[in-house]
Target: ABC transporter
Amino acid sequence: MATMLEVNGLNHRYGSGESEHVAVRDLTFTVETGQLACIVGPSGCGKSTLLRCISGLIRPSDGEVRLHGDEVDGVPEDLAVVFQDYSRSLFPWLSVRQNVEFPLRWKKLSRAERRERAVEALEWVGLPGVGNKYPWQLSGGMQQRVSIARALARRPALLLMDEPFASVDAQTRFELEDLLRTVQVKHGSTILLVTHDIDESVYLGDRVLVLSKSPASIVADLPVELPAERDQIATRASSAFVSMRSEVAKLLHGSGTAGPVTAEGAPAAEDAPEAEQARADLTEADAAEQANTAGEPASKPH
Ligand SMILES: Nc1ncnc2c1ncn2[C@@H]1O[C@H](COP(=O)(O)OP(=O)(O)OP(=O)(O)O)[C@@H](O)[C@H]1O
Model:
């Protein structure tokens, strides 16, 4: 399998002197073509900073990022990003189809080709026939599907997703997770998805990269040994899923002492404090993310 993304010795510092803050420390990893890699890390560890460096939105203090061998220096044309906050990334005054078509304006495509791609991408995400509606006429989950369609319509070499399902209800989240895996398997997309939800990282990923607390460094790079076809109920109840989720929780908490998690998802009694702490860290991260989505490029399609 060819390598799509290479991150070599990446460091990023904000500020300088006394106010210097190291957000990312010495990150090195690759993502292979066609892989869905999940990055999971605690709140504030530097996940978004890492994605900003990969997407060329900020220049790393040290190290390099390569996309299909080319050094990233500015936002690559064949990279797309899906953010958590769909309501700020879709243009309310454009129809759904026009939103999906919008970033294609910069590609050498005729109007008919742009329209064709938009219609096709909306079909991929299960939204045929809504092209003439406006985003605000759709549910939150549907709006996020439109954001995903807009990213896919560009046929990106790499799709970056920053907590893409953190703002929708649990049922919709499950549907969108399944949609993403279906689209990825069907179209061989290469995806790097950041989340602070352990279960989501294991359910979605072909691989899970676990980050440390701030500054982010890689604690583990784990292959997900689950069948390619996943099911929200059967997969999550399987022993392979439960054991991997427990391993990731232990790594995230950093103690390495948290014990097994029961098949029902509750930590085994003697290990409850560690596992619960890991979960609490992540719940806190969820709350912080919901409360503060500032800092992401607003109203700008990617
Ligand atoms: N522009 C900035 N200037 C200074 N510090 C920043 C800036 N952006 C982020 N930071 C700091 O860098 C650290 C990492 O932030 P980042 O947003 O990358 O983390 P994160 O893991 O994505 O957080 P969360 O899980 O809450 O989304 C934090 O301590 C944050 O305060």
Remarks:
- The first strand starts at residue 3 and ends at 14.
- The domain at 35-56+73-78+156-212+219-291 is CATH 3.40.50 (Rossmann fold).
- Confidence is low (pLDDT under 50) at residues 255-302.
- Residues 14-15, 21, 23, 41, 43-49, 196, 214, 285, 288-289 surround adenosine-5'-triphosphate (CB under 6 Å).
